[in-house]
User: Fold this.
Amino acid sequence: MIEIANLATAAVAALAGEIAKGAAGPVGAWIGRRLGGKRVEDLAAAPDDPAATEALAKRLRAELEANPELAAELRALLDGSGAAHAPQTATVSGDGGSIVQVQGEGNSVNIR
Assistant:
């Protein structure tokens, strides 16, 4: 079930990335078809709200657990989109702590 949880989290992160670029793309369309467009709209209305992203990931996890064939379909979609299957986490503590995480290929980061 951990793989399903990671897959759902990666899909929601990919959707948030699509929304940040201005519109839901293939991942958003897939989630909208499976869970209803209202769920995608809810995340689009509050893409930085952890409660909104967790609620969508939880609902998607339940759907994937109930329908394993959908998990394979979503995995293939994420593979084609270049989205990662493993979410990144970081814990930063202390004054002035910061973190940068990059995943994938061809990325560039400027830290100032």
